[in-house]
Write a structure and sequence with these properties.
121 residues, alpha+beta, Alpha-Beta Plaits, Blr3898 protein, DUF1428, Dimeric_a/b-barrel
Length: 121
């Protein structure tokens, strides 16, 4: 069975990156405790602003913002749905404010097409 992945791209103001890191650590613990297989957060280091498409353009990143790319891995879609239901009810993620503009976040669920571990022996 191929894993299921939730992916996210968002822009975080540089002056709020420490608050975002704290939120990410809490979110990681919550997702993993409720059954995720992996949780990854990455800060853009080589993400040029493209003329037509790019990560920064997709989230309308401003000069004072960093692009964050993250993903969460689950055993399958059914597990993902059950985990996310528990996560959304977890009081540790009930926040008064987010350190980023959620309206510019891109997210979605993906069925795995290919994994190196499945094709490389």
């Amino acid at each position: 069975m191929m894993p299921y992945v939730d992916g996210f791209v968002l822009a975080v103001p540089k002056d709020k990156i420490e608050a975002y890191k704290a939120l990410a650590k809490t979110a990681c613990a919550v997702w993993m405790e409720h059954g995720a297989l992996d949780y990854v957060e990455c800060i853009g280091d080589d993400v040029p602003y493209g003329e037509l498409t790019s990560f920064p353009r997709a989230v309308m990143a401003k000069e004072d913002e960093l692009v964050v790319f993250s993903w969460i891995v689950y055993r399958d879609r059914k597990t993902r749905d059950a985990v996310n239901k528990k996560v959304m009810a977890d009081p540790r993620l009930k926040l008064d404010g987010m350190p980023f503009d959620g309206k510019r976040m891109i997210y979605g669920g993906f069925t795995t097409l290919l994994r190196a571990s499945d094709v490389i022996s």
